[in-house]
Design goal:
single chain; alpha/beta; Rossmann fold; 3-stranded parallel beta sheet; 4 helices; 3 strands; 46% helix; globular
Length: 104
């Protein structure tokens, strides 16, 4: 199961690490373009900094956003996508996370 968290504006993403860990047990899916000061790439980097094993999947349909995500080496799915594509991408990220955890 993947809990998807929707935030009203980017400032609400900057909550405490304990709350973040509790709310993001399985992973995070975020658009690259977010209102406010933080974008999805920055959110993903912050999550990886604090919770390295937590999978993060970014999405966007904007070319500039796609280039930024690719440059950062983050998991990404291009909009528009079908539910099956999203499900497969999330499954692959979760399986990869389990494989990495087994090698620790």
């Amino acid at each position: 199961m993947l809990e998807i968290i929707s935030q009203g504006d980017a400032s609400t993403v900057q909550f405490g690490a304990i709350d973040l860990e509790r709310r993001l047990r399985f992973g995070n899916v975020s658009d690259v373009i977010m209102p406010g000061g933080m974008d999805g790439v920055e959110l993903a980097q912050e999550i990886h900094r604090n919770f390295p094993s937590l999978p993060v999947l970014l999405t966007s349909g904007y070319n500039d956003a796609i280039e930024k995500v690719n440059a950062a080496g983050l998991a990404f799915i291009v909009k528009p996508y079908r539910t099956e594509e999203l499900t497969r991408k999330i499954r692959d990220l979760l399986i990869a996370g389990v494989s990495e955890a087994e090698h620790l």
